[in-house]
Amino acid sequence: MMLVSFLTLGVYAQARAIEQRDSIPESAYSNGYPYPFALGVHLGTTGVGLHLYQPLGPKFGLRVGASYMPFNTHIAGTYNNYATRSGVKAKSGNVSLAFGWTPFVQRGGFFRSFNLQLGGAYFYQLDGELSTRLRDPYRFGEIDVHPDRVGTITTQVEWKKTVSPYAGIGWSNIVIDSRFSMHIDLGCYYLSKPSVSMEATGLLEENVNNAAIIERNMENYRYLPRVEVGFSYRFW
Predict the structure, then answer these.
(1) For a surface tag, which of 2, 50, 193, 236 has the fewest beta carbons within 10 Å of its beta carbon?
(2) Does the residue 63 lie in any domain?
(3) Residue-wise pLDDT tens digits, 5-63
C-alpha cells in the first residue's frame, strides 16, 4: 500500500509538472533543480527525516539525509495450539549519503527525472525486540498454570552500528513549481549480520539456549529495502 501511494504521488506530481512546464525556467532542469541547494522532508521504510540536496552538474546530484523510525505493536497468534500475545518493538536511525546520476536529463517526460543511485548510511540504531507469553492458562493434567508462572520469552535482534552500502534507482527533480520538487527512491541497503540474544522467565527459562539457532537462521537477513518519497524546497 505504501509503494502504491508513493507511485500515485509521483504520477500526480509528473502531471502537475507537465501542466506548469511553460512557467518553469529550463535552468530548473538543466542545473539539477533545485539550485543551488534545497532542504526537504521525506518518509519511507527507514523512517521520517530531513535531507539536503546539492546538484553537482546537469547530470549529477548529492543528497545528505537523516531518518528515524520507532515502531511498536502487539500481535496475537497461536503456537502449538496455544494462544499467544506478543509485543513487538523496533527502532531504526541512520544518517545517509547518496550520489545520483541522471543519464536522460536532456530528454522530456518520464525519463527526464530517472536516476541511478549509489551511497551508504550509518545506522546508529537498528534493533528489534519480540516478547511473547501465553494469553490463557497452560493446562498440565488437571492443573491450570497461570501465564505469569509459565513465563515470558524475549528475543532481541540487533545489527552492528556500521556503514551499510546502498544501491537503487529513483526519480529525482520531479518539478512541482519554481521552488518545490519531489523525489521517489527504490533501493536496498546491505546490512551487517544480526546478533540475537534471548531472556526468559518462569518455565520458559531453558528456551534461551535457542538463541544461537535463531541467530544462525537469521544470518542472511541482511537486505533492508528502501522505498522513500520526499519533497524539497529551494530558498534562493
Answers:
(1) 236
(2) yes
(3) 444 444 454 445 444 444 455 555 544 444 568 899 999 999 999 999 988 877 888 99
Distance from chain centroid for Cα 95: 12
* Beta carbons of 234 and 38 less than 8 angstroms apart: yes
Helix (H) or strand (E) holding 140: strand 138-140
Please, are residues 137 and 158 in contact by the beta-carbon 8 Å criterion? Answer: no
Residue 11 CB contacts under 8 Å (≥ 6 apart), including other chains: none
Side-chain half-sphere CA neighbours of 39 within 13 A: 3
Asked, for residue 1, whether it belongs to a domain, the answer is no
Q: In CATH, what number is assigned to the domain containing residue 26?
A: 2.40.160.170
Q: Residue 140: give the domain boundaries.
A: 6-234
* Count of domains forming the chain: 1
d(CA 22, CA 181): 16
